[in-house]
Amino acid sequence: MEKYGTVPPRFTKDWWAYFWDYYKWHTIATGFVVVLVAVTAVQCATKTVYDMTMTYAGDAAFADETVTAISDELSGIINDSDGNGEKNIFFQQLTFGAQNTDPQYEMAMQTKLMLELSAGESFLFIFSKSQLDTYLNQESCEDLFVPLSEWVEDESCLDGAAIGKSGGVAYAVSLGESSCLKNLGLNMENQYVVIRKMRNSEEKDEKFSIQFESSKIAGNYLLSR
Which of 80, 99, 127, 198 is the most buried (most CB within 10 A)? Predict the structure, then answer.
């Protein structure tokens, strides 16, 4: 029985022409799928897995080399959350403030920050004073941040430093005296560090527990004078 006419002997010149005429789109579609699968596999194999995520939210803008320098320094002291022998930090910048006049941009950054606080993987946050005040004035503050008394190891780092409080409880401290950040030429007087509390869904997950501990380690390192 003939199908699509008389089929030439396989792999002859006529057969290739016949094959291309009748199976051209099948071949192209199959090739596209193969390439897509290969690209996805390569991306998954080479994707950086982060052992800790930290987020800056405020009116400062850090240069790429500064972000890299901070990430590299902190990666040397945190824990390897996935056990792959590498320690990587994702430093996320959400920069907005008085210098930005685009209300849509401002709203987008605020929305991204709220999403990061409510559903993101950042435990370590650095806030500008204005952004910090916004959250310290919320009733939910005690459910969001860890009090300084529960994670700061060296209380002498708090001596003379500006402290962010809510309901009489200290949650944030200025990074103005941070030797690490001073050595990078940064003026962090009006920038404050906080640690986000673990969510109920994270408490039984070993990965998040390790990242939470790493964030406290990094926070203490940033506070060292």
Answer: 127
Token pair recorded at residue 157: 């780092």
Q: Which long-range contacts (CB under 8 A, 24 or more apart) does 109-115 make?
A: 109/57, 113/55, 113/57
Helix (H) or strand (E) holding 77, with range, is: none
Q: Annotate 4-28 with b (16+ C-beta within 10 A) or e (fewer).
A: eeeeeeeeeeeeeebbeeeeeeeee
Count of alpha carbons within 13 Å of 81, Cβ hemisphere only?
22
Give the three-class secondary structure for 5.
Answer: coil
Q: Per residue of the chain (225 residues), what is the pLDDT tens digit?
A: 445 567 777 657 766 676 667 666 666 667 666 666 555 444 444 456 799 999 999 999 899 999 999 999 999 999 998 888 889 999 999 988 756 567 888 888 889 999 999 999 999 999 999 999 999 998 889 999 999 999 999 999 999 999 999 999 999 999 999 999 999 999 999 999 999 999 999 989 999 999 999 999 999 999 999
Rounded distance between C-alpha atoms, residue 124 and residue 214, angstroms: 9
Residue 91: strand, helix, or coil: strand
CB–CB of 207/224 below 8 Å?
no
